[in-house]
Amino acid sequence: MSLLKIQLESQSRAVYATSSVAYPKGANVIINIDSMEQLGEVSGRCDCLEPFLNSRKGEVLREASEEDLTKRKEQRAIEEEAFKFCKRTAKDLGLSMRLVKVHHYFDSSKMIFYYTAESRVDFRELVKILARTFKIRIEMRQIGVRDETKICGGIGHCGIELCCSSHLNEFAPVTVKMAKDQGLTLNPTKISGVCGRLMCCLRYEVEAEKGAAQTEENESGEPFSKGVKDE
Question: What pTM was estimated for this model as a whole?
Fold first, then answer.
């Protein structure tokens, strides 16, 4: 049994799936994850990580056929059409929302519309119109600016892929105090990420210092450092 890293179109961050076949990198496969079938591309093999992996795992069902790839291509066309139609309809209904992404699940179980909004949006009429037009179950999912960046992906100040779209499983609190304790400039443009919020990586040095201090204390019996206390 192999553990494969799979890149799905529904999200920027890869997922992991067990497989009885060691498919090569670049292979298109159909996986079952969260009780739904999705099409993904194998980006690597991670057998050594399985004992330490706590995040959700899927199961590779089979290698994608030409028919599967054609089906997904048709779904992408539907997504593009649905995106334009939803934006136009929301505007006609006077809804204050910003559509971010539309994803049509491979098994045709539903189509999700990701959007941001400053306040609660009554999208009941919009959902009725979308369901009637596309003949599929519709889910409207409101997300925050950090989630929007996670979905869309991008490159950080460091020049590599954003942490939220590459490996972070969840968002942890980040405070200005963390930047102060590291002696960093408090210029918002320097410590803010693509999403406009404080960079997630500001926590890394804080957590590393806490870990080093705890290790030193365990080895010597004397506290080496008090570390940094989160606000």
Answer: 0.72
DSSP summary character for residue 230 = -
Q: What percent of the chain is predicted at pLDDT more than 90?
A: 38
Question: Within 10 A of 177 (CB to CB), how many other CB atoms are there?
Answer: 14
Q: What is the DSSP letter of 47?
A: G
Q: Which residue has the tokens 């009554």?
A: 122
In this structure, are strands 15-19 and 57-63 parallel, antiparallel, or unpaired?
parallel
Q: Residue 213, exposed/middle/buried by CB under 10 A (0-12, 13-18, 19+)?
A: middle
Q: What is the mean pLDDT of the chain?
A: 81
Specify the range with the lowest mean pLDDT, choosing from 26-40, 121-135, 200-214: 200-214
DSSP-assigned letters across all residues of the chain: -EEEEEEETT-SS-EEEEESS-PPTT-EEEEEETTEEEEEEEEEE-GGGGGG--S-EEEEEEEPPHHHHHHHHHHHHHHHHHHHHHHHHHHHTT---EEEEEEE-TTSS-EEEEEE-SS----HHHHHHHHHHH-S-EEEEE--HHHHHHHH--B-TTSSB-HHHHT-SSPPP--HHHHHHTT----HHHHB-TTSSBPTTHHHHHHHHHHHHHHHHHHHSS---------
Q: Which residues contact 24 (CB under 8 A, 6 or more apart)?
A: 42
Determine how many CB atoms are found less than 10 A away from the CB of residue 90: 21
| Cα–Cα distance for residue pair 182/160, rounded to 1 Å | 21
